[in-house]
Description:
Order of helices and strands: HEHEHEHEEHEHEHEHEEHHEH
CATH topology of the largest domain: D-Maltodextrin-Binding Protein, domain 2
Structural class: alpha/beta
Strand content: 15-25%
Strand order of the largest sheet: 2-1-3-10-4-11
CATH class of the largest domain: Alpha Beta
Number of helices: 11
Number of domains: 2
Radius of gyration: 21 Å
Number of strands: 11
Amino acid sequence: MWLQKRVLSLVCGISLAAATIPVQASDFPSRPIKILIGFSAGGSTDAVARYYALKMGEALKSPVVVENKPGASQLVAIRGTTSARPDGYTLFLATGSSLSQGPGVRTDLPYDPLKDFEFVALAASAPGAIIASPKIPAKTIDELLQYGRDNPDKLNYGSSGVGSASHLQTEYLLNAGHSHAIHIPYKADAEIMNAIAEGSVHFGLGPLQGAVPQILNGKVRGIAITGSQRSKAIPDVPALSESKTPGLGGVDPYTYYGLLAPRGTPSDVIAKLNAAVNAVSRDPDAIKYLQDKFFDPQVSTPESFKKFVTEDIAKWQGFRSKINLSN
């Protein structure tokens, strides 16, 4: 809650009164809205944020800008949001790793996604691709899992960092398949891709968006796509649902992107922001654009978005004792 100091000056008092008048949806927005993201420019989260910012700005008839706040597993952007005034002008585009995967398996995070934010809307989800080096014999997900069982101290995988979606989802996959691989953390998906192509890393699970070009040029081997449907871009790569190994359906979606506002943001402002996000996700041109970029636009209410996150956190809490977050 925003607290203001009492002052004796009449001028300051008038200014203070004006500053604390509740935001009304009829007046919103009257200035630019900013969306904070916890990643540098150029990645998949940045791409989603900038497209939704552009189209939300058109729907709201007011500029929406993206501010990149990379660092500390999105904590810089998270703190920038939770400390902002709850008026709808500062939003956070969260990912699955910051909203449910991380909070589900970690107990040391300095925030609670269910208590420290107002849920605005689930914007999009994204499938992932499991890719492997041509230098290992595995050509299918079942062969990869078996290779890990047969070579528990040999098979390795790369991720974009401890606690990232690529780390947690790969561990979930290995656990479901009763397999094992050594974790090698990197700083970026591009580094992992190069290492897999070179053969120093055996496999990885990352955004489909970045994997498709490398699969098509033959530098890496496409093993599987998360979810139940193959991708039209790489139709020869099977979906995880086609695997003979049960339990792999939990790796879906690979990640998702949702807008949050500071706790205490008025409900009518939240409703207006939600309508703007849903307008983008329902637009036929936006659907085509996003799907061409390997994102699946989503339509939600604030309540259904929060319910989805609550259930996903519970899933990951059940996995907490089975994962090692020390490396």
